[in-house]
Amino acid sequence: MSDIVVEEASARDEARWHADWLERRGEQWRRQGLVDADVAGHVDRLDRMRADTALHPVWTLRATGPSGDAETVGYVAAGGRTDPAGRRALLYDIWVRPDLRRRGIASAARAHVEDWARANDLPRVGTTIDPNDPAQAALFGSYTVTAQHMQRTLDEPPDLPEGLVGRAMTEAEFPAWREQDVAGYADEIAVGRALSPEEALAQANAEFDELLPDGPATAQHSIWVLETGDEPPGRTYSAVIWLRHHLEAGRAFVFGVSVVPERRGRGLGRAVMRLGERAVLAAGDSVLALNVFGPNTPAINLYTSLGYHVTDQSRVRELTT
């Protein structure tokens, strides 16, 4: 097969790619256990996000086959976006014909998107991959992991270690916790979203205001604290977990986990996760999911040891001129 030629997709090729892309993404979410209604919602949001970008080209990958005729060997799609995270290119998809994989075609497609980003003054390229697919992990091995989604299917409510007590956060405890958690979240998204400290703090405050308008009494949310019986002076608990129940059918999400600095290194992160799992099962969900921002190896190791597995990763590459 000859060298790869990347050309703007015809309307027919783009329509073919588009339908196949949405179907493949939907199947990925189904493999994660989402029901059809939630899969449809994810697919619709993804499609609208792409349509809303000012630039969202699709290219056809072609090469000369054994017969001497040009053949379509794949597609690549990207987008350009400007938002609080800055100007960047989004690499939505690379698809290569199954019988022609492992021949460098996907690498050529990735390089084309990076060149297109440079030409359009987009200083970084971001993408989402399934890290359980060795081909995807290798193709984007030079990209930095900025966030990863993890989840676990729950069965029986786990026991808490002896001597620990879990309870709901009180209204009086909420303001101080909110201030500290906003600061911690801002630090995380500053890395994960490539924001300045000021931008990250503003975004964190806005998101907390939107998510918890009624504090700990906000519908479908619960905030649980863990008491050890020997809390540091001035503190009424040693660890906390914030949950969003029924985010999708049968699925809850961890919005925040923290252990007070004076009590770290005592296994309380593991214990408060178990407290959260008990609350999730009591609320009627059976899957608990979470995001880890940036290269937070201790958090990833903790969740992995608890049985959580990575379902997708966000990766980014800063481009040089």
UniProtKB/TrEMBL annotation:
Top-level taxon in the UniProt lineage: Bacteria
PANTHER family in the cross-refs: N-ACETYLTRANSFERASE
InterPro entries with a match to the protein in the record: Acyl_CoA_acyltransferase, GNAT_dom
Organism expressing this protein natively: Actinopolymorpha singaporensis
Keywords: Transferase
GO MF: acyltransferase activity, transferring groups other than amino-acyl groups
Pfam family, one: Acetyltransf_1
Keyword Transferase appears in the UniProt entry: yes
Name this polypeptide is given: Acetyltransferase (GNAT) family protein
N-acetyltransferase domain boundaries: 4-167, 164-321
Entry keyword Transferase: yes
